[in-house]
Amino acid sequence: MILTSCNKDEKIQTASLEQQKLDYQSRQIDLEKQKLAIEKEKISFEKQKDSLNKVAEEKEKERVAANNRVTKRSSTRRSSSGSSGGGGGSSSGSTASNSGSSGSTGTTATQKKGWSSAAKGTVIGTVGGAAAGAIISRKNPGLGAVIGGVAGGATGYTIGRANDRKTGRVQK
Q: Are 86 and 136 in contact (CB under 8 A)?
């Protein structure tokens, strides 16, 4: 009897070992399935990312082409207005300098010449705010000028930046 009971324990142990091996293999298969699903999602994400990048590049090319067309039209108009007279020698001289600088900045077609509205607004706001601050603060006009200049400059910049966005000089 002792021998048969020992054999039964071995059979149970081998059966449980086989069951553990099968459980382990099934868990391994589940892990491999999860890894495969993750890889599929990575691939689909990369495809979406690539297609979005292509769309963005096409839009950028269209925008640059449109800006180049606008730049060519405006430089043609400037050249024709400069050669028609009316403004004298200084007008044609400024036209030549503008057309020369636009050729050197062909890659950045959105860059405009002269002061931006934000810069103009900052300067005007700072000067006006400083003057108003000095007038309002009679006891300490220096401090009033500084505070008014800072507040006026910030306000002028904000208003000028909004104007630049409207005109298309800057994007966001």
A: no
Say what the alpha-carbon torsion angle 120, 124, 126, 131 is, to the nearest 10 degrees.
170
The ranges assigned to domains in the chain are: 1-104, 115-172
Element (H, E) at 58: helix 2-83
Cβ contacts of 154 within 8 Å, gap of 6 or more: 125
- Kindly indicate the confidence band of residue 52, based on its pLDDT and cuts at 50, 70 and 90: confident
Q: Take residue 43 and report the two structure tokens written for it.
A: 């691939």
CA distance 162 to 2: 96
SS3 151: helix
Predicted pLDDT at 74: 61
Alpha carbon distance 50, 43 (integer Å): 10
CA atoms within 13 A on the CB side of 25: 6
Place of tokens 């900045």: 105
